[in-house]
Amino acid sequence: GEQIRQDAIASDFRVSRIPVREALRQLESGGLITIVPHHGAVVSSLSPNDIEELFEIRVLLECEVLKLSIPGLTESNLAQAEVSLREYGKALSRQGYVSVWGRLNWRFHSVLYSGVHRPHFMSIIKRVNNNAMRYTGLQLYVTQEFERAKEEHRQLLDLCRARDVTAACELLQQHIRHAGQSLKQG
User: Fold this and answer.
1) 40-43 and 3-4 beta bridge pairing
2) How many CB atoms sit inside 10 A of residue 116's CB?
3) Residue 122: which of 166, 73, 66 has the closest Cα?
4) Which helix (H) or strand (E) holds 112?
5) Is 96 helix (H, G, I), strand (E, B) or coil?
6) What is the predicted pLDDT for the residue at 77?
7) Buried-exposed string 138-173: b where 16+ CB fall within 10 A, e elsewhere
8) Which of 184, 127, 178, 136 is closest to 156 using CA atoms?
9) In this predicted model, what pLDDT tens digit does every residue of 24-39 receive, in sequence order?
10) Dihedral sign (CA 106, 45, 144, 97)
11) What is this structure's pTM?
């Protein structure tokens, strides 16, 4: 809900207001801010019901894409997911890296969805994740469920590697729902 001052940003970065205005438009298209006529830009906030809806959307879209993706995942995709998982695990062990956790989480999940070419699905999923990402790190920080997150990601990768579509989709559904419920209650 905090207001973003275009002039102050332009001054801080020593640029004109034009690139700042364009950056704000991009943030608005990603759902991260709202531009209010005659009041400027404000950071979007999510109510508990908004959070619940975002995570329901994630369950529907991501489980469908994962189901389609698993048969097409290559060894290269799986190796890339493994690297992302290691980076995520290292970042989780560092309390100062809260802002990075959501980005690394998205990187891991998006690699698992790369076995199928569904650009429109991925565009929508990325937008929903961008909105939820602000809260993903917070959820982990507050609940301190680092081991659970790492273990669920490990299991998800192992199930994808084993090509167990049903079990992977069930786990992904539980994983996303649990994160959403934790946030809504927190």
Assistant:
1) antiparallel
2) 17
3) 66
4) helix 98-112
5) helix
6) 97
7) bbbeebebbeebeebbeebbebbeeeebeebbebbb
8) 178
9) 888 887 667 888 888 7
10) positive
11) 0.77
Q: Is the four-CA dihedral 19, 22, 24, 26 of positive or negative sign? A: negative
pLDDT tens-digit map of 74-113: 999 999 999 999 998 888 887 666 667 888 889 999 999 9
Are the CB atoms for 46 and 128 separated by under 8 Å? no
CA dihedral 37, 38, 43, 48 (to 10 degrees): -60
The Cβ-side half-sphere exposure at 115, using a 13 Å CA radius, reads 26
Quick one: residue 49, left, alpha or beta (phi over 0 = left, psi -120 to 50 = alpha)?
alpha
d(CA 96, CA 117): 35
Could you give the C-alpha distances from 108 to 65, 66, 82, in angstroms and in order? 14, 12, 8
Among 70, 34, 97, which residue's Cα sits nearest to residue 160? 70
The Cα-based distances of 37 to 6, 7, 25, 40, 80 in angstroms read 13, 16, 13, 6, 44
Write out the two tokens for 145: 């469920």
